[in-house]
Write a structure and sequence with these properties.
The protein is an alpha/beta fold. It has 3 helices and 8 strands, in the order E-E-E-H-E-E-E-H-E-H-E. The chain has a 5-stranded mixed beta sheet with strand order 5-4-8-7-6, with helices on one face. Strands 1-2-3 form a 3-stranded antiparallel beta sheet, with no helix packed on it. It is elongated.
């Protein structure tokens, strides 16, 4: 172990260690230049307090700024947009119509007067959207038919092919039966 001098186990005088050590004031002293360096714990604590307080203030200010931006964005999104789109005319929905069933017989809006009906427009060569939609339609139709309220109204489901050039009457009929035999398949004679 090192040579122990009069100041302590490592020598170096009254301070203790070779480069200095604790003195009686609670600070540190050095024998090299004979100057005593007093470390003030209060000063160190003050620096730590100021640093922590500064971080809290910065965090609070950042949150306030963020909340203000969110509020402004929300208000901006709630304001009606000034669209330059001009709408003319009216959608041609409803009114009289005439299509053909899978036997080639004409079916018109008058044949379904007084009934509720679900209409799905699609085509039998549709890979995914039409089958999923028709399954949902069949499920809804069966749910309604199984309810006690069904006695108060009559409901029909219609599948209208928008591709009569490829969808034959037989194909439409078989396609509808896959989902529910009560679905009525309709189309027109040609795509024009």
């Amino acid at each position: 172990m090192g040579g122990g001098g009069p100041g302590g186990p490592m020598g170096g005088g009254p301070g203790g260690g070779p480069g200095g050590g604790p003195n009686n004031d609670g600070g540190y002293s050095s024998e090299e230049d004979g100057v005593s360096f007093d470390s003030d714990r209060r000063f160190s604590n003050f620096i730590m307090f100021v640093g922590a307080f500064s971080m809290v203030v910065i965090f609070a200010v950042a949150n306030v700024v963020q909340l203000k931006r969110q509020k402004e964005n929300k208000e901006r999104n709630l304001e009606p947009s000034k669209s330059t789109t001009k709408y003319t005319g009216k959608a041609d929905i409803g009114g009289p119509w005439m299509l053909y069933n899978t036997k080639g017989e004409p079916v018109t809006h008058k044949d379904l007067e007084g009934k509720y009906y679900l209409i799905y427009f699609g085509f039998t060569f549709c890979p995914d959207v039409c089958p999923i939609s028709l399954m949902k339609m069949a499920k809804a139709l069966n749910t309604v038919k199984e309810s006690k309220e069904h006695n108060y109204f009559d409901i029909e489901a219609l599948f209208v092919s928008v591709d009569p050039d490829r969808d034959s009457n037989e194909r439409i009929e078989e396609y509808c039966k896959i989902f529910d035999p009560s679905i009525i398949g309709l189309t027109h004679k040609s795509n024009d």
